[in-house]
Amino acid sequence: MDHLKKIKAKLIKEFQKLHGENRVLKTKYAKKSLAQKRESHELKGEQQKAILHSIPSGFWRADMQGRLLEVNAAYCQMSGYSEQELLKMCISDLDAIENAEATLARLQKMKEFGGEHFESKHTRKDGSIFDVEVITNYLDINEGQIVGFTNNITERKKAIKKLEESESRYKSVFTNAGLGIATVSIDSKLLTANPEFENILGYTLEELKGLTFSEFTHPDDIKKDEEQYRKLMHSKIDSYKMDKRYIHKKGHVIWGQLTVSVVKDEYNNILYSVALVKDITAKKNTETQLLLSTARLKEAQKIALLGNFEHDFKQGTSWWSEQAYTIFGFEPNPNPPQFNFIIQRLPEADAVKFTALLQRAEKNGEDYSLTFRYNMPYKKEHKYIWLQAAVLFDDQKKPQGVKGIIQDVTQKRKLEIEKDLYLERISSLMKYTDEGFYLFETSEPVDVSLPAQEQVKLIYSGVIVECNDAQAKMYGYTKATDIHGKTLLELHGEDSNPENISFILDWIESNYEIRNAVSEERDINGNAIYFSNNIIGIINEGKLERIWGTQRDITDHIKYEQSLKDAKQKAEVANIYKNQFLANMSHEIRTPMNGMVGFADLLDSDDIDKETRSSYVQIIKNSSDQLLNLINDIIDVSKIEAGELKLKITSCSLKNIFANIDASTKIQKREKGKGHLEIKYVKPKEFDDLMIETDPLRLQQILINLINNALKFTHKGRIEYGFKLNDKTIIFFVKDTGIGMNKEEVNLIFNRFEQLETNDPGKNEGTGLGLSISKGIVDLLGGEFVVESEPGVGSDFTFTIPLKMTQENYTLNSSN
Known about the structure:
Strand 8 and strand 9 (253-264) form a beta hairpin. By secondary structure, the chain is of the alpha+beta class. The chain is built from 27 helices and 27 strands. Helix 22 (610-642) crosses helix 26 and helix 24 runs antiparallel to helix 26. The model is unreliable at 810-816 (pLDDT under 50). The strands form 6 sheets. A 5-stranded antiparallel sheet has the order 2-1-5-4-3. The protein has a 5-stranded antiparallel sheet with strand order 7-6-10-9-8, sandwiched between helices.
């Protein structure tokens, strides 16, 4: 690398020499420009400004406070600010080193010495910092002004820095460059090459040194390369650049972008040349593909009967693609016919519309689209052509021209005409049938390969384009036009029945065809309606475009079927209840009857003592009471069911009612062996002897039923019962700390003959009628039952009845 060190030293020396001359020249130039400015001070306005803007250096003028008074375009470009922005700034705003105070001191120094030549750093608008060289002069005008010329010397600094870099850095750059770099002797022998150069060609440096460039250059490019190289070696050109092909070591062609320049000594003698090679094989392949794509585009336009065009309003010139000529029936030529000529071949209505669209496009910049009938030149035939154009605007945002596409849609138009005729026939058929008949079109063709849920969303955005009156009336509308244009979402409502969506999913799974399928929908009033559907989807090239369907209202039939199902279910439930009732009754009646008959037989015996006889009589009495209660419960249930249970509303004392309940509770507590339980009666203190109007026996019956149940299912803890008042109702409650119930059990306890399942046989005693009777009585009293329960915690039974206090309460309240 010794020769490179020598070259580097010479380059640095030469650069420093050029740098000195450059500064002298710039100083002379600046002073000369300033002198010329003083001499030509009479130049005014635009002429003066033109001169300033032609200067390559950044020019500025400022007052002694550093406020910028004038700048040229070069200074604006250099700083990144506009002229308006700079004229609102001070020099210190741009200086990246000095603050405002230091800048003012420097301006005073310029005034003292008539100017200054220095280097500094400035800040651009985007915040980036760059190196500058500044030459200033002081003008003794308007209390003193400073004019300056600023040059961006960032590149110069970078060049110096590069020249001053160490040889290892130079070697690193040379070695790691992304370009192939090689130095070549004046006799075309390779001197050095970096790894990228070796990589591009596939040769090692040692292999390359034994070759000339011509030996690995494509034969078709050798002559042109050698001609340029001879010119370079004879100093006829400073450098040259070309795209050329190289032959890789493995034999395949590599495209390279070659740039060649020479390095000279201080006496202008050529030392060697430097070749830079960039691998552009991929770029060339892309260009080839682009040419191929262009050819394919032409072929595609030919197949699709699609052409494109451009038209310039101001120039009145047009450009047509090859296919556009074919569509309009002309041979390609450099001067295609103008729009006016085309318009002349249109029917009057289409011509008027086309002309109006052109005028609006040229005047208002409006894009346009239309389909028109076109009479072919030289032939007695016509086409239907679709045209769509977008307006192009100039720099002043004024319409300059249009570019667009045209397509021969003759075949499509014929199909549309046939479709219209077909729809007309279908419409006649739909008018005279009682069955709903409709045509539904999707807002855009639905790709049938999409997931079913995505297809449903697109289908729901489609619209009804045709239907008969019968179809509209099924949904509660008056006539067919009431639902024309409605989407499926609007027809079904935003809260569409999930079963309806499921129905559409089933239709998709059935390959878009379904027959006699039942769907549940909603009419305009939200009422459920049921249809028998026959639906078929029209699919074109894998896209669902429209749906034909018929619907028959089977709501009455479905309701009839449902009523039969309900009746059957009720009969089955009634039969179950009947069997449960008979089983329970046979058990409940047999138990006390057995007791009565058995102990009655024992009473006939002469050898029993008086005490035993007395206990037998008590057992017979208890059994008869049990049987009587059972019969009363059955009678109550029957009366409630038949609506014949009569209440005996009278004025009664709650104190007396709860006294009876307390007595009954003590007996039940003793008989059930629950003496350890705490049973507490809770009442409002101020209503110790409240008089109300109700049926006292039925009220007492309800509370005793609830307390007996609490005793049955509570093993430890306590039971509370009582009442409390609010404004219009009296609230009775029974709370326990028993076994509790879950939600499912709470929902069942008021059913007749329903009992909680428990492992304790004693808990299953009774008929399961008590709570059902209690609820029936509360309903008759105009009240409401509420049950809150939690397994393992206990239950809270609450019922309310309207509060009707007697005159005695009003007197009592007045005295209180």
